[in-house]
Structure formats: structure tokens, C-alpha cells
Amino acid sequence: MTAPILRVEDLHVRFSMSGGSLFGSSRHMLHAVNGVTFSLAKGECLSIVGESGCGKTTTALTILGLQQPTEGTISYRGQPFTGPNAPTRMQRAKAVQMVFQDPYASLNPRQTVRKSLSAPLRLHGITAASEIEARIEVMLKNVGLTPEQANRYPHEFSGGQRQRIGIARALILEPEIVVLDEPVSALDLSIRAQIINLLLDLKEQLSLSYLMISHDLSVVEHMSDRVLVMYFGEVVESGGWQQIFQTPAHPYTRRLIAAIPNVDDRISTPPNPKSRDLIVLKNAEFGTDTRVTPDVFRPPSQSKLIEIAEQHWVRISSV
Amino acid sequence: MRFGFNFWLGATLTALVIFAGILAPWIAPFDPVFNADLMNSELPPDATFWFGTDAQGRDVLTRTLYGAQISLTVGIVSQLINSLIGVTLGMTGGYWGGWWDDLVSGLTNVMLAIPSLIFALAVLAVLGPGLPSLLIALGLTNWSWTCRVARSSTLSLKSQGYVQAAKILGYGDMRIMFTQILPNMMGPILVMATLGMGSAVLSEAALSFIGLGIQPPSPSWGSMLTDARQLIQLAPWIAVFPGLAIFLTVLGFNLLGDGLRDSLDPHMRTRKP
């Protein structure tokens, strides 16, 4: 594994929620992301999994610069990505791009594919018509579309084709990191595999790094090199995909994996009997009772990440 | 895009009024101001004077045709000013949020609370009567609904994936507003502007009727009604024809606006079996 190109250190995002009545206001802080630390290496696919509202999207938005962190730093190739020396939107655009979940809402209905792809190039100083044309042609071929389709509007394409256009738009500026926000969850099951394979091919071909946000663990298992499990703003477990899927340690991770529907599993069995033997920690030691919903308005309880195997971290209570 | 019956009826009426206004110098049988002849005053409609003549003996048909010029100018120009103000404030307010949005929303609510005709009266009282001040008065007083529509459209478009994508691609705020948001909310804005033209024509007639708008002897439908007021029982045609013109113009704009809304807004579109 090469040196990390993106480092996220002790990231906190808190939202101020003001409420109350005419007689006295109350201010709550919503703790969306609590001390998330991870790094992303070149050519790697790191997945953040967790339920809705666990802070995975907020983490991604912070990396994309659409959300300011309350605390913590993000650095890209040693350069700060947050704080007073943060790059401008223009500078950031060449480093990180994003593929959206909903292919129907992510393309401007009034712009042709050509316009959607050429405008960012022009904005970034590529003005020669021949070069723009050549790059659009190459990019459309890369994502499995034909150059003739460039003159069409988004509504003339199917969901899978639109997602291909979305991927082309994300890659047209040749970024190093691509954030994939549930890239296939809005697609037909029959199309999912095509898009997943396309993403994997492009990753190899253009040596991209992916940061994937998902709650679809079957996609995560197929695509990721490493997995980060988030639960109510905190990383509860992280490790290589084999470690997470074969020897899950944290009770929340186990429940997530147990929830993957399995057509072969007609008799209900525990998700992975082997994992129980390997992990010596007892449920109570994790400090997180996953049956009780944590209060997002309270600072998180005392806990820490410990390394239970090489590069396999899990959160336990430190009280 | 399919347009319904309302749209075509409205478009026909509006087109008729526009042609009447543009072609008035060629198709009107007389001069609108200088053919006054007291020998011909208050003649009922006949072969020479199709719509009859008014108290000064001027041809009512001619003056009604020329009146279209003023009504259309007022309707279109004042609505352009309204849309410009409303869209600029609403879009920037909705997009940026924060104190600027609070200011814009507050201002919009204040404007909505003041009866626009009374506000226009106040503006005219300061600027004095006449066409330019009428355009300014009506242009400054009717932007609040457009502003609200622009703001709420911006709020909903702002969270669309393609606006986020534009930000991530490095677009500046202004570029996002003009290339991503504005083209996608042109539908409702166009509808608001068309409906607003109808109400601007009515306001012009009302303000001219009470003497603060277009001044005599210029042929405005509102001021023609003022002249006709005292003679309404003796010579009703002097009032009926400009009144009918106002009615058909406003109806035309409203039907056009409704038809546009029905065909631009998929939720309003009626499904045919």
C-alpha cells in the first residue's frame, strides 16, 4: 500500500440546532461526526458504511468542501484541505469529484451531455474546441457511451446511462479521488453489476482512489479494499474488507453483516460462527448498546479504538 | 410540449392586442388626438365611426387601437422590471441564505402587506403622472410574488444533485445561479410574468382612470373610461369599447399564463384518457 493521499484527522462536525419557545430559547448541538480519523491511499477503495444519519455523508461533504468541519483537519497530499489555507473550489475540483446517488437529479435537465462535460473543461482553462471534443469523446468511450450520444439531453437516457454520464462528469477533470455516494443504490439490480464493474475498471485504468458511502454491504464487499463502519458519528470498526466481513468484532458490525440477505441461507444461522471464537471481547465491553438509540445531542461517551489485529480497529468503552 | 385550449385562446387574444398596438398607425381610420371635431361629437357607431365618437368627436375605434400601445408598453415594461427585481432578490436570497435572505424575505413580506395600487399611487404622487413614472411605479410595486416564487424554486433546486455537482466542479456562485438554477426555474417565472402583465394592464387603467396615469389627450383605455364616465347613459359606446379592450387583454394574458403553467408544470397537467 502506498502512502496516503488523503488524511482525515479527528474530524468533528456539529450542527447548532436552535429551538425553544418565545419564553427562553434552547440551543442544542447535534453531533453529526465525532472524531473520525482515516486515510485514503492511491488506488484504494475505502467504504464508509452505516445507517442513515450516522454521519457518513457529512464526512464526505466535508472532504468535498461543501461542509465546514467544526474541529479536525483534512489534508490532501500534505496540503491542508480545511481551515484558512483551504484551496478554492476551483483548486479542489481537480483533486476530488463526486458521483451522486440519484442519476435523475444529478444531471441538469436543460443541458446536453456535451454541455455538461465541456463547461467544466472550459471553466478550468481548456478552451481549444478540438481538445474539448477529444476529451469528451475519450471520456464517453471510457464510460461505455458513444460520442454520438453527446448531443442528447438527460431525459433521453435510461437510469444506468445517466449514471454513466454522471461518472463521466466526475472524471472529466481527471481527479485523483472520487467520492461515490451510493453509486448504484438507485439503479435496477440488472444494471448494478455493470456500473460496479465499470467503476472498478476505471479505478484500475485511471488509478483512481474511491471513497464510497453505502449501506448496501453486498456492493461494499465487492468493491472495497478497506471498510469503515460508522455508528452515530463515530467509527466503531475499521479494517480490511476480509477482516470486517469475515471476523467482525463490534456488535453493530455483526448486526449489519447479519442483515445482508443471503439466498443460500435458508435456515437462520448466526452470520459467522467463526468470528465468535476469534474475538475474545464481550459485548458489554464495547460500551455501545446498539439496541438503544444514542442521543445525538449529547457529547459521545468515553470510548477509544483499539487494534485487535493488524490494521483492524474496533471501538470499546474506556470508562 | 402540449398546449391546451386556454393557452391558444390566450395567445390569440394577446396576439390580436399586440397586432392592434403595432399596426395602429396604419389600420386606424383617423388620428387619435387631432381629429377632434365637435360637429361629430357623441355619434353612435355607424359605417364611418365603427365604435362611435367621444365628446370631442374623436373616433373611439382609433383611440382604442392606439390605447393598446400604451397598455402593452405598461404591461411588458413594468413586468420586465418586476421580474428583474424579483428574480435577482429571490434567487440570491434563496441561494445564499443567511442575513441577506432574512432581509429579502422581510422586504417581500412588507411589500406583500402594502396594497400595491396604493403604493403605486404614492410613487406616482412623488414622481408626478405620465408614462415613465407609471412604468416605474408599477415596476417597483409588484415584484414580491415573483420574488417568493424565485426564492422557493431556488431553495428546492439548490439541493439537486446537479447544483452540488457544479459546486464540486468549481463553478462560482454566480455561474451556478445563471447556468444551473435560472434556466430550470424559467417556467414558473414566465407564468408569473404573464399573469402579472394582465394585472399591470388593469392597474394602468385604474391609475389612468383616477387621473394619475396617462394624461389626456393620450389615448389610454383608463383615461378614455374617465372621459366616458359622465356620458355613460347618453353615449355608452364611449365606455363600452375601451372597457371591452381592457377585459379582453387581461383575459388574454391570464389565459396565456394559465395555459403556460399547465403545460410547463407536470403536476398541473391534466391527464387525458
TrEMBL record, chain A:
<dbReference type="GO" id="GO:0005524">
    <property type="term" value="F:ATP binding"/>
</dbReference>
<keyword id="KW-0378">Hydrolase</keyword>
<keyword id="KW-0472">Membrane</keyword>
<keyword id="KW-0067">ATP-binding</keyword>
<keyword id="KW-1278">Translocase</keyword>
<keyword id="KW-0813">Transport</keyword>
<dbReference type="InterPro" id="IPR017871">
    <property type="entry name" value="ABC_transporter-like_CS"/>
</dbReference>
<comment type="function">
    <text>Part of the ABC transporter complex GsiABCD involved in glutathione import. Responsible for energy coupling to the transport system.</text>
</comment>
<dbReference type="GO" id="GO:0055085">
    <property type="term" value="P:transmembrane transport"/>
</dbReference>
<dbReference type="InterPro" id="IPR013563">
    <property type="entry name" value="Oligopep_ABC_C"/>
</dbReference>
<protein>
    <recommendedName>
        <fullName>Glutathione import ATP-binding protein GsiA</fullName>
        <ecNumber>7.4.2.10</ecNumber>
    </recommendedName>
</protein>
<keyword id="KW-0997">Cell inner membrane</keyword>
<keyword id="KW-0677">Repeat</keyword>
<feature type="domain" description="ABC transporter">
    <location>
        <begin position="6"/>
        <end position="257"/>
    </location>
</feature>
<dbReference type="GO" id="GO:0015833">
    <property type="term" value="P:peptide transport"/>
</dbReference>
<dbReference type="Pfam" id="PF08352">
    <property type="entry name" value="oligo_HPY"/>
</dbReference>
<dbReference type="InterPro" id="IPR027417">
    <property type="entry name" value="P-loop_NTPase"/>
</dbReference>
<dbReference type="GO" id="GO:0016887">
    <property type="term" value="F:ATP hydrolysis activity"/>
</dbReference>
<dbReference type="InterPro" id="IPR003593">
    <property type="entry name" value="AAA+_ATPase"/>
</dbReference>
<dbReference type="InterPro" id="IPR003439">
    <property type="entry name" value="ABC_transporter-like_ATP-bd"/>
</dbReference>
<comment type="similarity">
    <text>Belongs to the ABC transporter superfamily. Glutathione importer (TC 3.A.1.5.11) family.</text>
</comment>
<dbReference type="InterPro" id="IPR050319">
    <property type="entry name" value="ABC_transp_ATP-bind"/>
</dbReference>
TrEMBL record, chain B:
<keyword id="KW-1133">Transmembrane helix</keyword>
<feature type="transmembrane region" description="Helical">
    <location>
        <begin position="234"/>
        <end position="256"/>
    </location>
</feature>
<dbReference type="InterPro" id="IPR035906">
    <property type="entry name" value="MetI-like_sf"/>
</dbReference>
<dbReference type="Pfam" id="PF00528">
    <property type="entry name" value="BPD_transp_1"/>
</dbReference>
<dbReference type="GO" id="GO:0005886">
    <property type="term" value="C:plasma membrane"/>
</dbReference>
<comment type="similarity">
    <text>Belongs to the binding-protein-dependent transport system permease family.</text>
</comment>
<protein>
    <submittedName>
        <fullName>Peptide/nickel transport system permease protein</fullName>
    </submittedName>
</protein>
<feature type="transmembrane region" description="Helical">
    <location>
        <begin position="7"/>
        <end position="28"/>
    </location>
</feature>
<feature type="transmembrane region" description="Helical">
    <location>
        <begin position="189"/>
        <end position="214"/>
    </location>
</feature>
<dbReference type="InterPro" id="IPR050366">
    <property type="entry name" value="BP-dependent_transpt_permease"/>
</dbReference>
<dbReference type="GO" id="GO:0055085">
    <property type="term" value="P:transmembrane transport"/>
</dbReference>
<keyword id="KW-0813">Transport</keyword>
<feature type="domain" description="ABC transmembrane type-1">
    <location>
        <begin position="68"/>
        <end position="257"/>
    </location>
</feature>
<dbReference type="InterPro" id="IPR000515">
    <property type="entry name" value="MetI-like"/>
</dbReference>
<keyword id="KW-1003">Cell membrane</keyword>
<keyword id="KW-0812">Transmembrane</keyword>
<keyword id="KW-0472">Membrane</keyword>
